[in-house]
């Protein structure tokens, strides 16, 4: 039996940031990682993936990118080296290759059982990430057995697919990136589009992430929103990180030959039904993009910075067929593979503390789990700020949660 004040589960950017802030407060702790440091970046991403955020935005407590390409976008080996390099600056013990079997509450704290022994602790931080399991809809069960069903966690490169058409379901960051890559491999792609968030890669000469940082969008707090549950479910931005800093939206995909359809509504007897709401979804995405651009223009005017940037402009509306496709016969249209770019969810199968809602999500208030004092969560979308799930968002969240954790320990000791 091992004893420590805090166990951090996960040694990605969130767990490491929390480790730094606990160490700064002299709170003894360990990190438990099922694989290696930055394991999900190493083993659960496709080969060509790059960060959606520019390199200058890669920063952790007391550590930041210092390479020669601040406006570029790290590929996966570079991300792993960045996070591994940060881990090496910390003095905290990291137990890699250690799988958590269960976390249970005790009278004086928590018991964390692993395949390499058991830990008793007063507090636990769940920093195992938000993307442990692909979120595949039940419609996937209705696919004909002759058609391959693949998730982004299983995808590595287009040539792993059989020759033939590919239907990509979901048009957020993952969906649009993979639709482009697979289309360019010579396979005809059909992209099923639901709710999405359209933004340009560059606006007025700066990266859209630079603008969102500058005008305070990324620092918006969870307790400043009208409906935090809704905000936490907003899809990721339609972005791709490329050396050309190109914009990837539905218009760009259509220009490459990708077929655009509405949201997948169901599958029966080898036939797919699509929603007829594609036009409305695209109109709403265009409207929200223009609102963001208007906010940027207003910030420039209010700060008298017009001379520092290119003039304002607007982008073409999303093209939508006059009569959108409402159905597809998978066999007749040559579809051999369906790729489910329909999001991810955390894996809490080992968490035996009653803090999950009926959909398996943790009930928390900005990372503080009130139903289980001393239990915290890190790295979820919009945990405390809009930037929470990004590398650059880990610092502020970890600082505030470490303060709360420290206060909890003092209260328990009183």
What do these coordinates show?
By secondary structure, this protein is α/β, with parallel strands linked by helices. It folds into 2 domains: about 1-130 and about 345-414, FAD/NAD(P)-binding domain, CATH 3.50.50.60; about 135-340, FAD/NAD(P)-binding domain (3-Layer(bba) Sandwich), CATH 3.50.50. Helix content is about 25%, strand content about 20%. It is built from 9 helices and 25 strands. It has helices at about 15-25, 40-45, 75-90, 175-185, 210-215, 230, 250-255, 280-300, 395-414; strands at about 1-5, 5-10, 30, 60, 65, 95, 100-105, 110-115, 115-120, 125, 135, 150, 165-170, 190, 195-200, 200-205, 205, 235-240, 260, 265-270, 270-275, 325-330, 335-340, 345, 375. The strands form 8 sheets. The chain has a 5-stranded parallel beta sheet with strand order 6-3-2-10-25, covered by helices on one side. Strands 12-23-13-14-19 form a 5-stranded parallel beta sheet. A 4-stranded mixed beta sheet has the order 1-9-8-7, with no helix packed on it. Helix 1 (about 15-25) packs across helix 9. It is globular. It starts with a strand and ends with a helix.
Task: Write down the domain tally.
Answer: 2
The level-1 CATH class of the largest domain = Alpha Beta
Molecular shape: globular
Through-space gap between termini: 26 Å
Task: Report the major sheet.
Answer: 5 strands, parallel
Query: In terms of structural class, how would the helical and strand content be classed?
Result: alpha/beta
Radius of gyration: 22 Å
Helix content: 25-40%
Please count the beta strands (DSSP E, at least 2 residues each).
25
Strand share of the residues? 15-25%
Number of helices: 9
Low-confidence stretches: none
């Amino acid at each position: 039996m091992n004893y420590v004040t805090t166990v951090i589960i996960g040694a990605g950017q969130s767990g490491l940031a929390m480790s730094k802030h606990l160490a700064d407060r002299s709170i003894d702790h360990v990190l438990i990682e099922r694989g290696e440091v930055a394991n999900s970046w190493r083993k659960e991403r496709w080969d060509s993936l790059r960060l959606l955020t520019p390199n200058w935005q890669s920063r952790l407590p007391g550590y930041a990118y210092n390479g020669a390409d601040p406006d570029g976008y790290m590929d996966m080996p570079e991300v792993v080296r960045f996070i591994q390099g940060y881990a090496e600056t910390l003095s905290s013990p990291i137990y890699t290759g250690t799988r958590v079997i269960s976390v249970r509450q005790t009278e004086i704290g928590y018991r964390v059982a692993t395949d390499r022994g058991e830990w008793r602790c007063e507090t636990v931080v769940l920093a195992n990430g938000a993307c442990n399991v692909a979120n595949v809809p039940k419609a996937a069960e209705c696919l004909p057995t002759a058609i391959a069903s693949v998730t982004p966690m299983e995808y590595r490169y287009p040539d792993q697919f059989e020759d033939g058409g590919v239907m990509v379901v979901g048009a957020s960051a993952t969906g649009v990136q993979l639709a482009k890559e697979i289309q360019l491999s010579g396979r005809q792609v059909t992209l099923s589009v639901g709710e999405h968030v359209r933004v340009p890669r560059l606006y007025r000469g700066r990266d859209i992430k630079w603008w969102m940082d500058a005008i305070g969008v990324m620092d918006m707090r969870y307790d400043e929103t009208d409906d935090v549950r809704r905000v936490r479910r907003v899809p990721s931005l339609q972005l791709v990180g490329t050396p050309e800093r190109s914009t990837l939206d539905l218009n760009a995909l259509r220009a490459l030959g990708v077929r655009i359809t509405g949201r997948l509504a169901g599958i029966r007897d080898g036939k797919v039904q699509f929603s007829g709401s594609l036009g409305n979804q695209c109109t709403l995405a265009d409207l929200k993009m223009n609102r963001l651009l208007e906010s940027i223009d207003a910030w420039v005017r209010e700060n008298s910075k017009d001379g520092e940037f290119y003039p304002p402009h607007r982008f073409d509306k999303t093209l939508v067929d006059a009569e959108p496709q409402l159905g597809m016969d998978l066999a007749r249209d040559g579809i051999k593979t369906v790729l489910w770019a329909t999001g991810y969810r955390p894996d809490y199968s080992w968490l035996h503390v009653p803090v999950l809602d009926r959909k398996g999500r943790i009930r928390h208030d900005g990372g503080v789990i009130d139903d289980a004092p001393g239990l915290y969560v890190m790295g979820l979308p919009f945990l405390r700020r809009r930037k929470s799930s990004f590398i650059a968002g880990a610092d502020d969240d970890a600082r505030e949660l470490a303060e709360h954790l420290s206060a909890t320990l003092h209260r328990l000791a009183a």
